[in-house]
Amino acid sequence: MRRRGMMAGLLLAVLMVLSGCGSSFPADPEGTLENVRGGTLRVGASMNGDWVRINASGSGGLSSNDVQGTEAELVKDFAARLGAEIEWVAGTEQVLADELKHGGLDLVIGGLDDKTPWVTHAGTTRPYAESRDGRGSLHKHVMLVPLGENAFLLELDKYLMEVKAEQ
Q: 142, CA 20 to 30 Å: which among 9, 20, 25, 78?
């Protein structure tokens, strides 16, 4: 009988803790989704064939017309869904992954696959597309997001899976 009382007390304590947590799962510790929705989506773009093409005019920052390709179009549609403007930043994968890690970007694209070495710097979406290279190797494509920004990641994953289902 005493054991049941202890178990009931433990269960009650767990329920109280969980009810105090609210329903904000998944969460973004840095508020990425909240900041982007109706605001600005800061996107790092690394050139990579048909995935990302950058045609910079050389005058100041990049516009949405300067960044083209399969992933760029996905990001433009995702930003529109969130009511966000896009601030584009061009660079190498290494520079962009480091900028993402330190909070300067919300998303990195560049034809990356699920074997990207940047998983120590970033979270990845679920693979949303596949391609084969010239050697016949299969690549499962992902995008990079800030580590721990799970609400933003979930929103992006849902969007990418919807697009994949429509194809």
A: 25
